[in-house]
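W.,

You were right to be curious about this one. When I first looked at the sequence I had no strong expectations either way, so I just let the prediction run and decided to look at it fresh. Below is the sequence, 730 residues in total, followed by the output.
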Amino acid sequence: MKPNRILFVLALTSAVFIVRPNLRAADPVLVGQWPGYARGPASDAVLTGNYAYVHDALGGWQVIDVSEPANPRRVGGYGLRGYSLGVPVVSGQYAYVSATFYDHLSGTNRFSLAVLDISDPLRPRKVGSCDLSEVDYVVAVSGHYVYAVNGVNLQVFDIANPSKPQLVGGYANGSTFWSVAVSGNYAYLLNGDLYASSSLTVLAMTNPASPQFVGATEIETGNFVNAITVSGHYAYVAASSAYDAATKTHVGGGVHIFDISNPTQPQHVGEWDPTGTAGGVIVAGSYAYVTEPFAYDSGGLEGGLRVVDISDPANPKQVGRYDLKEAATVTVSGTNAYLAAIYDGLVVLDISDPKNPQRTGGYKTDGNARSLAVSGKYAFVADGVAGLEVLDISNPANPKWAGGYGTGGSVNVVAVSGNYAYVEYNIWTGGTGTDYLGVLDISDPTNPQWTGGHVISGGVAIASAVAIAGTLAYFSYYYGGLEVFDIPDPTNPLLAGNLPETMDGVAYGVAVAGHYAYIADGPYGLKVADISDPANPVEVGRYFTGGEADGVATAGNLACVADRSGFLVFDISDPTNPQKVGVYATNTSFTVVAVTGRYAYLAQASGGLQVVDISDPANPVRVGGSDTGAPASAVTASADFLYVAAGANGLEIFAVALPALSLHLTSNALSLTWPTNATGFVLQSATTLANGGDWQDSSLKTTVVGDQNVITVDATAPTAPTGFFRLRGQ
């Protein structure tokens, strides 16, 4: 929830005065973010026109342009801050989706049905919603009704007015519902319990507000049912198999085919691959396209797409396959199949020859902002498997992708010095991983170029943080200690020395000041290393925090440590003997810390920022805070902004400097002014302050004079406004 950040209120009445509310002045205000939605492994995809809406496992969407199947491009996305969005169902210009969010006021999870206008696929926007009693999965749209299941019942919503969806009917029979398909005047439901019997239940939907049971049949599945699709007079059910100890084989899975020409008496007519696990199924022409998360015929390692000839429903036969790990769902359009795959994102296959599907293109949907560096008007983000992302932050309210570089591995940390970016990444091949240092020329930030690299000793250690001092780069590694690289020639970085982890600690963070490196060493607290000889770093001091040190930053003679036990301040005037001088004790675990001026900015393990005043190191005091969209992996602070690497949510930018709203009064005119660079703030007005005030965005005409926004009011005019004004953080 965004803070209601008010700088001060101006009252315009016959007696002019200023009201200063008792609010925290150090609450960071979210002003911009990129990409604006959560990213993660692809778990589902729907296709409409030239766009695929890919749902990821972390609750966001990505909009992929597939007009060129060989070159899918991400063109947009959608996410509601604080919400986890379900799989979208698209009909016409609207998408219908279930949404879950945590209500901080009530301390409970809340659920809703959200309606999004996707007439502009690049900019989906929410146009309506209604509350749900519990989480529902929106699975079908027919006419002006949405059908959703929530485990215990079917719910029907009237969407004739998309801005005001209404619950109008439902159905329950005491069992668990998994999926539903609607065809004509009938709804076909999959219901049953895990490892028990499952059924295909048919409801007459002549009156959607009052579904009527008309027929059912048992499905002989060993585990549970996953999905259903209806084509013509047949229903196709994707099911998971279970191991039968008696026969020592898997049974009850694959695709079950039912004749529904008489909906009151569905008949089982055929099945395909009962030993397999079918996650999804869709029918096009004489073929069923089936996704398998994994396949027992390949040791359980490879799933993928299976093409099944269903021209004879009683005798379906597999005619083609494409192996792919963790294939989740499939949709077909023309001669292309679009797969959502956990590890590979969106995968496009050419199925013009169904017996021989061929990959033509793809787009990895995953991304995990783990580290960042800010230089000038650019932020450089280590974005996991998405590589290095370069974002233009000249307008903090609207950061834009400017360039990037894919290393072929997962980028974990980044640091920038001059015209070079230094990244650590790891690559896994055949179950074996290797860690690398890569150096990129960023003299043109929009087009980073590889200049050199170095294999990191010790195999896969995975860097947690990096600090650059002069011509040396210091990397801390999980379970790998500290390594020092000599980088005077960026095209040829050389390992200069290392400090191995000798106490089974975990080097989570590193900061360098003078001839010393300060390492957040997990359960072994704060470690100090003398790096005056980079080829031979030597541990010279240590302080056991009693918790788990995750992050460290230095400011003069102070070292600030983000610890699982709280926030700790150390006097390091004698680096060989760090002394704890201050503690901000809380039940919150901190993982990352950045310091600028008198403030330390702390990232919480559970998500969120806290601001602590350290002007008196012996008495650190919390003075503000804000929510983040996800737990932060890194925080970089400037005088005006905080830049947060927020995992799957990417980059989040918070304003920490307060713009001034000023009032100027002359004999016949009154002016309001505030800086044009007050990004993330909006002028609001109210006619009363009773009950919190009736605040609305101001409609008064604003002009720009120099670096100020100006509103001038003729105080003598009969229509001169009276009331209250404020700047509010958005």
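Here's what jumped out at me. The domain at 381-494 is CATH 2.120.10.30 (Neuraminidase). And, maybe more interesting for your project: The radius of gyration is 30 Å.

Coffee later to discuss?

I.
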